[in-house]
Amino acid sequence: MNQSLLIRLTAILGLLSVALGAFGAHGLRQLVAVDQLAVFETGVRYQFYHTFALALAAVLLDRSGVRPERIRLAVWLWLAGLVLFSGSLYLLSLREVHGWPVAFLGPITPVGGLLLMGGWLALLLSPQNSHPHA
């Protein structure tokens, strides 16, 4: 994944975060229960947080002093985590609307959360070790 693609992906996810947030704030209030609306909003919030993380990754990707393979790993973990975490929350919170049998997604949500955390761990491990000269 190169920096240009990552910037575009960040922009798409940011746009979707705003659109989904607006949909949740204005379109879902009459369609789902308050507790399900809160679940939907959690998905949007984590999607937005990790959109900013992707923007940070785009800035860091070509910088010296970081391991680009670890930045790319963080990006892939965040993307997979968003699909599983936020995606499952969206589908679970909207089951009154779509009527699909999605209860099996409940255990998938925490797996997505672990992937999101793994992305942050990859970012933590991305700086190259520098050894001061004696």
UniProtKB/TrEMBL annotation:
Alphabetically list the UniProt keywords: Membrane, Transmembrane, Transmembrane helix
Q: Which InterPro entries match?
A: DUF423
Pfam families (alphabetical):
DUF423 (PF04241)
Question: An example Gene Ontology cellular component term from the record?
Answer: plasma membrane
- Where does this polypeptide localize? Membrane
Q: What is its main location?
A: membrane
Q: Which residues form the signal peptide?
A: none
Instruction: Note the superkingdom of the native organism.
Output: Bacteria
Q: Where are the transmembrane segments?
A: 45-61, 73-92, 104-125
**Membrane-topology annotation of the record:** Multi-pass membrane protein
- Similarity field: Belongs to the UPF0382 family.
Recorded hits in PANTHER family, A to Z, give: TRANSMEMBRANE PROTEIN 256 (PTHR43461)
Listed name of the protein: DUF423 domain-containing protein
Record the organism: Neolewinella litorea
